[in-house]
Design a protein that fits this description.
CATH topology of the largest domain: Rna Polymerase Sigma Factor, Chain: A
Shape: globular
Helix content: over 70%
CATH superfamily of the largest domain: RNA polymerase sigma factor, region 2, helix turn helix motif
Order of helices and strands: HHHHHHHHH
Radius of gyration: 18 Å
CATH architecture of the largest domain: Orthogonal Bundle
Largest sheet: none
Structural class: mainly alpha
Amino acid sequence: MPADQAIVELVQAGRGQEAFERLLPAYRRRVFGLAYGILRDRAAAEDLAQEVFVKLWQALPRYDGRAQLSTWIYAITRNAAVSALRARRRELSLADEAVAAEVEGVAAPDAAAAEDPALRRAIDRLPEKQRQAITLYYMDERSVEEVADMMGIPANTVKTHLHRARASLAAALGESAKEPA
């Protein structure tokens, strides 16, 4: 991404404030989208996105360029979201029907509003890893290798998640197409 290269050059030149000012609008929606995809709660994803940008601000001077900027940002976001999800699961039991209903009833993010509602529901029902792989690969248009780096898993595992997710989505959408409207 040309914008990423400009941000990296600013970081390397010691101009962290300018780099961050470019990074924030470039990654705001993507960080939120990934956080929402993991947490499944709009308010929690918004809070987490803010926390991630604070972490990025603090860590930006130490960014060494070994990974692509987007991969580095996604890894920080994914790790923070997974940690938040674990903490939340300790606090709440999703076996509680009221909590489960509330989580299921959370509105989709603005980026997903234009999508087919049946597809969005089917994606929401996928297991977490499959949902992340589908989101990063198709919606964020990342390569299998980039998705693997972002999720911290081997590329072949990403391919397996994508294959299983596509099969599940085909089955779910095939069933919903047969249901009367």
